[in-house]
């Protein structure tokens, strides 16, 4: 399966990072670039349950491909969510179901950043995306 252009760009940047500190800085930068969600989107119905931090997710089907927007109140989680969005935006529902989250973050060199609770939280976000995609 081919990766969305944004995911290819993320891999390029993270795989060429000089080490963990540079990856951590990149993670924060990716999170800071996430567009803010409107207050209308930051409602209970859009909150992802299963995350320790607050995470809101909205999605829309555009010409058969899913486009998601998300944000979090936690800076590190925002970065991880931004990288998840890079991986999934533009996918069809069936491609979305095939996304391997641990593999994606391993490719980025961020596996050690995924504590069990963060991993569970990101899995909850991906699960919610799949629910939205039906």
From TrEMBL:
<dbReference type="Pfam" id="PF02657">
    <property type="entry name" value="SufE"/>
</dbReference>
<feature type="domain" description="Fe-S metabolism associated">
    <location>
        <begin position="13"/>
        <end position="131"/>
    </location>
</feature>
<dbReference type="InterPro" id="IPR003808">
    <property type="entry name" value="Fe-S_metab-assoc_dom"/>
</dbReference>
<comment type="similarity">
    <text>Belongs to the SufE family.</text>
</comment>
<protein>
    <submittedName>
        <fullName>Sulfur acceptor protein CsdE</fullName>
    </submittedName>
</protein>
């Amino acid at each position: 399966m081919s990766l969305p252009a944004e995911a290819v760009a993320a891999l390029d940047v993270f795989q060429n990072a000089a080490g963990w500190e540079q990856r951590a800085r990149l993670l924060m930068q990716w999170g800071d670039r996430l567009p803010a969600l409107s207050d209308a989107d930051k409602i209970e119905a859009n909150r992802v349950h299963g995350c320790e931090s607050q995470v809101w997710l909205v999605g829309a089907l555009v010409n058969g491909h899913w486009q998601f927007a998300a944000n979090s109140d936690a800076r590190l989680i925002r970065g991880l969510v931004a990288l998840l969005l890079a991986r999934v935006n533009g996918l069809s529902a069936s491609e979305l179901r095939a996304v391997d989250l641990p593999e994606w973050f391993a490719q980025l060199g961020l596996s050690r950043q995924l504590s069990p609770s963060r991993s569970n939280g990101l899995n909850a976000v991906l699960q919610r995306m799949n629910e939205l995609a039906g």
